[in-house]
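Worked example 3. Consider a protein that binds 2-phosphoglycolic acid.
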Amino acid sequence: MKALIVSNWKMNPVNSSQVLSIFNSVKSKIKNLKKCEVVICPPFVYLDRLKSYLSKTNFILGAQNCFWESSGAFTGEISPLMLKNLNCRYVIIGHSERRKYLFEKEEMIDKKIRACLMVGLKPIVCLSNLKQFKSILKKDFSKKVILAFEPLSAIGTGKPYSIEKSKKIRFKVKHPFLLYGGSVDSKNAFSYIKKAGFQGILVGSASLKSGEFVSIVKSLEKFI
Ligand code: PGA
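Given these inputs, the predicted complex is written out as structure tokens:
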């Protein structure tokens, strides 16, 4: 099983020439991956463009969110079916920033997960504490999704959760595919997989710095 590296660009960059520049500098340096699979999750507006850029690479396309219906009168929303038709394979669901700023609740998150699974998209569900894990692990769909442990103290803070504490969480969460996310960089990335036992990483800010992102991918190819 390959390690999954999910790059979450969040609401960046602000124009498509920057998208091209990030993509070009990463593409030329990451080739022939043997141990990792790289998923790029840009803002919706760049998905179509990235779909054509990614077509001749090993990178996989993902999205950062979706709605729970396929089409209809839902102003401003994007459906899982639309994402599927853009060659997306993964969708990040329930990110803590969406829970905080858009008040996403468990019920909405569950509907989104089910809608993704219906069209064959793989949800990557972000959870920040054991209570949330306990709840999702009881659901019928829990084995069909990828889970991501994203402790709030580590998201966008530059303060990664310690490897020791992460290892304890990994041990407690009985799920075959768990990612770690929160201030991942090229120095700590491989430890979350090799030492703490996660199946991959979710990378936010470091995924926009092409040199750093390339180093993350290379470190995993080398050390795991
Ligand atoms: P970060 O974000 O790497 O910038 O901490 C991770 C995430 O939000 O998924």
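Take a moment to read the result before moving on. The mean pLDDT is 97. The CA atoms of residues 5 and 26 lie 13 Å apart.
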